[in-house]
């Protein structure tokens, strides 16, 4: 066990645990977007920023990747953290303004303005989908490609991957694309739940227990 | 350079690195040196052979601009679009090349002669706008110079032609990494320009000239090379090692591989005194001697 200071409180933490885990254990809320239990920490979204150190030497680190250290002084909600977190959210909102997850986070953290041009991207490059595909689904079907502004997520060569099982986990974890069921275009469907039924759900009023992770199926909901 | 992919060759290249996971970039470089680009099937073989996922390998090949997933032309034209070149109107130069070659930046002409690409800075801003063709820098290029630059590259390729002598003929070689010609301008042997490379052995590092006549073992070098020494050869332009993935059949030393103008590779043993060599031409009627 190591001892550190968390928001002025002396707390004990297991060696090797991340600051995010420690803060959550002691009940200090830290917003996250690219963090998910069971997946390796990645530190892409920068929402979980905390301030470590004191005075002029203090700095911001992503708590999901930073390990707890003996005697470390951590602040999870200092004015600098709150200010930066709002800026991060505003930037995320600029790239994916249509994302419900990001909208909700922005609202919860009091982002009241949008000063950046809205891009309407469908990806914030958080890597959740690639990590769940690799670490939980053991498929390794999608991943990062390219570099810089051309960086994107997808399958190699932009063709359907041989190892993809259409499990839909990537869509399930995605905070940005929030793909709707593509039941009208079964060949493009990722989950394939509807297409597995015959006749496809296009002709049906409603299916219960589709084993579709979109419960209830968005397509059925629309009708 | 080979044009047809053979899975056995790719497997041989991968296995040379003993399944070392950290050697992935070296494996890819070796494959690219062989084929001039990274064929899709080759990446799949690399993935299954090294146990890494295709996603990882594809991510690496798309990350580094040195790797190409499309076949590239014989001549690689890079137009600098960095800030200094940009203000000196490199955009017009690039458009000139696009018009002259009828391709967009990042594409290859239909006859596989030229590949056009842009680079962000070549560190030679005082010479801007800079255009690099097969490793050769052209300074202060204007839109009107475009045709000359392309013609110059074509001429360099044709300045030595294979003679009609069936037994001894001169080859014109270039570096398989940067595609720049290794032929000297001034130094002639029997009337043919010599091949100049950098040689390194036993902590000695100096120039080495090889006869360009195929089957001729005459060399000149800065340092005396004792017989039996295995020499590492490097390209004098890009400093990449000119190593083949093959091993000499007679003495197990690594073979040296050079691109032959017109398509194909010439390979010879890196051990002084060993006479193992082979010529691998794409043109099937020119068989090895």
Structural notes for this entry:
The complex is a heterodimer of chains A (223) and B (289). With 223 residues, chain A is of the alpha+beta class. Chain A has 3 domains: 2-81, Roll (Ubiquitin-like (UB roll)), CATH 3.10.20.740; 123-179, 2-Layer Sandwich (Alpha-Beta Plaits), CATH 3.30.70; 182-223, no CATH class. Helices cover 23% and strands 12% of the residues of chain A. Chain A is built from 6 helices and 7 strands, in the order ββαβββαααββαα. Chain A has helices at residues 19-25, 79-95, 100-108, 128-136, 169-173, 218-222; strands at residues 2-6, 9-13, 49-52, 59-62, 73-75, 143-145, 152-154. In chain A, the strands form 2 sheets. Chain A has a 5-stranded mixed β-sheet with strand order 2-1-5-3-4, sandwiched between helices. In chain A, α2 (79-95) runs antiparallel to α3 (100-108). By secondary structure, chain B is α+β, with helices and mostly antiparallel strands. In chain B, α1 (7-16) packs across α3 (40-50) and α2 (24-35) runs antiparallel to α3. In chain B, strands 5, 11, 12, 13 and 14 form a 5-stranded antiparallel β-sheet that branches. In chain B, strands 6, 7, 8, 9 and 10 form a 5-stranded antiparallel β-sheet that branches. A 4-stranded mixed β-sheet of chain B has the order 2-1-3-4, covered by helices on one side. The A-B interface holds A 130, 134, 140-147, 155-157, 161, 163 and B 40, 43, 53-59, 62-65, 69.
């Amino acid at each position: 066990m190591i001892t550190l200071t968390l928001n002025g409180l002396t707390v004990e933490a297991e060696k090797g645990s991340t600051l995010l885990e420690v803060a959550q254990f002691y009940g200090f809320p830290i917003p996250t977007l690219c963090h998910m239990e069971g997946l390796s920490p990645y530190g892409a979204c920068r929402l979980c920023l905390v301030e470590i150190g004191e005075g002029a030497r203090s700095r911001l680190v992503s708590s999901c990747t930073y390990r707890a250290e003996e005697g470390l002084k951590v602040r999870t909600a200092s004015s600098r953290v709150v200010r930066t977190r709002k800026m991060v959210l505003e930037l995320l909102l600029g790239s994916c303004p249509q994302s419900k997850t990001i909208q909700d986070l922005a609202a919860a953290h009091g982002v009241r303005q949008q000063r950046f041009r809205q891009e309407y991207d469908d990806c914030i490059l958080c890597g959740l989908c690639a990590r769940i595909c690799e670490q939980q689904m053991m498929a390794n079907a999608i991943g990062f490609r390219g570099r810089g502004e051309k960086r994107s997520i997808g399958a190699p060569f932009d063709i359907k991957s041989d190892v993809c099982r259409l499990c839909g986990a990537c869509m399930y974890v995605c905070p940005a694309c929030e793909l709707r069921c593509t039941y009208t275009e079964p060949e493009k469907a990722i989950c394939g739940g509807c297409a597995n039924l015959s006749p496809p759900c296009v002709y049906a009023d409603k299916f219960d227990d589709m084993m579709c992770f979109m419960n209830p199926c968005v397509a059925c909901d629309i009708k | 350079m080979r044009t047809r992919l053979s899975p056995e060759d790719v497997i041989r290249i991968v296995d040379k690195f003993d399944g070392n996971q950290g050697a992935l970039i070296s494996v890819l470089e070796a494959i690219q040196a062989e084929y001039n680009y990274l064929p899709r099937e080759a990446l799949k073989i690399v993935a299954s052979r090294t146990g890494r996922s295709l996603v990882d390998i594809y991510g690496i090949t798309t990350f580094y601009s040195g790797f190409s997933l499309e076949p590239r032309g014989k001549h690689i034209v890079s137009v600098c679009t960095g800030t200094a070149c940009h203000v000196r109107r490199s955009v017009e130069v690039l458009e000139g090349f696009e018009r002259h070659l009828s391709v967009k930046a990042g594409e290859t002409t239909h006859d596989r002669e030229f590949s056009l690409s842009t680079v962000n800075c070549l560190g030679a801003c005082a010479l801007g706008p800079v255009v690099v063709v097969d490793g050769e820098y052209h300074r202060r290029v204007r839109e009107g110079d475009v045709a000359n630059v392309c013609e110059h590259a074509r001429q360099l390729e044709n300045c030595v032609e294979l003679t009609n002598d069936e037994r001894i003929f001169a080859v014109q070689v270039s570096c398989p990494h940067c595609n720049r010609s290794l032929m000297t301008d001034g130094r002639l042997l029997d009337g043919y320009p010599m091949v100049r490379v950098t040689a390194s052995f036993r902590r000695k590092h100096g120039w080495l000239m090889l006869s360009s006549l195929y089957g001729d073992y005459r060399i000149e070098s800065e340092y005396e090379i004792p017989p039996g020494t295995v020499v590492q050869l490097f390209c004098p332009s890009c400093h990449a090692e000119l190593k083949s993935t093959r091993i000499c059949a007679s003495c197990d030393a690594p073979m040296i591989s050079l691109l032959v103008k017109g398509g194909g590779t010439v390979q010879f043993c890196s051990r002084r005194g060993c006479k193992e060599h082979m010529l691998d031409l794409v043109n099937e009627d020119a068989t090895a001697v």
